[in-house]
């Protein structure tokens, strides 16, 4: 079976803000058409990684390539290949859902912006709400619209920086379904999250970023081998991602003390 080409390749990434060293040599790769989850506590450096990969920030050292382009030497080509959705929905609450989509399509100089808007409203289950002002939308609907807007222009790679922050469980599940559909259609997704269940449900591969470095990376099955299965009434139970995360972070913290 042919291995998918790498959509993202990061090697030795360093970044400091003054005397604060945020990234201390980050390395990872993401296969095309997959979902890669970057886990970490607040301040671990997740958003800094995303900002570097999306050309919003330059690294101090190291290299990063996205869709085959160097983020420092070829920033324009990288930007043409990606889309970024931040922690809060970047939608205009005064405009309707359809008007938001049409506006972005025009800004990106996409042909037939009205047709593009209608197609995305249909794909994301927002047809009935398309003519309503976004200020009337629920949190889940806003996030779905935000992700729909990020797909205009068919980016090869999409960065989702904590996309379900502040959403209720039902809205979170709606967003999960859309993220899975993206990967199923061939889009590469890099997802940062503090919701471990989110990574457990969605990710093909998971990396844990702690104090500026990747301390473990692999599939969920591979990460589960790091902890022995629990025994419950003679029935073997596999450890959850939350248990793995807390055990690994705890080990690292213990080693420092």
Secondary-structure blueprint:
Blueprint: E1 6-17, E2 20-31, E3 35-39, H1 46-53, E4 61-66, E5 69-70, H2 75-81, E6 82-85, H3 97-107, H4 113-123, H5 139-150, E7 157-161, H6 169-184, E8 188-193, H7 196-202, E9 205-210, E10 213-218, H8 220-224, E11 230-232, E12 235-237, H9 241-256
Measured as a percent range, the helix fraction is 25-40%
What would CATH call the homologous superfamily?
P-loop containing nucleotide triphosphate hydrolases
**Total beta strand runs:** 12
Which word captures the global form? globular
- Judged by helices, strands and strand pairing, the structural class is alpha/beta
The total count of helices amounts to 9
> Mean pLDDT, rounded to whole units?
87
CATH architecture: 3-Layer(aba) Sandwich
What does this structure look like?
With 257 residues, this protein is an alpha/beta fold. The protein has one domain: P-loop containing nucleotide triphosphate hydrolases (Rossmann fold, 3-Layer(aba) Sandwich), CATH 3.40.50. Helix content is 36%, strand content 27%. The chain is built from nine helices and twelve strands. The strands form three sheets. The protein has a six-stranded mixed beta sheet with strand order 6-7-8-3-9-10, with helices on both faces. Helix 5 packs parallel to helix 6 (169-184). The longest helix has 16 residues, at 169-184. The protein starts with 5 loop residues before the first strand and ends with a helix. The mean pLDDT is 87.
């Amino acid at each position: 079976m042919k291995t998918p080409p790498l959509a993202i390749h990061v090697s030795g990434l360093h970044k400091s803000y003054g005397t604060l060293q945020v990234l201390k040599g980050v390395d990872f790769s993401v296969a095309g058409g997959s979902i890669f989850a970057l886990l970490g506590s607040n301040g671990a450096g997740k958003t800094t990684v995303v900002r570097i990969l999306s050309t919003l920030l330059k690294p101090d050292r190291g290299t990063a390539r996205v869709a085959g382009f160097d983020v420092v030497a070829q920033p324009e080509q990288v930007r043409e290949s990606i889309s970024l959705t931040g922690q809060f929905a970047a939608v205009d609450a005064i405009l309707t859902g359809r008007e938001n989509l049409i506006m972005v399509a025009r800004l990106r100089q996409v042909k037939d912006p009205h047709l593009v808007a209608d197609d995305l409203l249909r794909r994301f289950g927002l047809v009935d709400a398309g003519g309503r002002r976004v200020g009337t939308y629920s949190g889940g609907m806003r996030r779905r619209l935000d992700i729909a807007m990020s797909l205009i222009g068919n980016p090869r790679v999409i960065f989702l920086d904590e996309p379900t922050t502040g959403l209720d469980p039902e809205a979170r599940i709606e967003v999960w379904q859309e993220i899975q559909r993206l990967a199923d259609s061939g889009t590469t997704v890099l997802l940062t999250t503090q919701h471990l269940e989110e990574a457990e449900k969605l990710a093909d591969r998971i990396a844990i970023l702690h104090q500026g470095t990747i301390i473990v990376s692999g599939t969920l099955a591979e990460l589960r081998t790091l902890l022995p299965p629990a025994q419950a009434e003679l029935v073997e139970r596999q450890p959850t991602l939350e248990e793995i995360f807390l055990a690994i972070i705890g080990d690292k913290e213990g080693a420092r003390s």
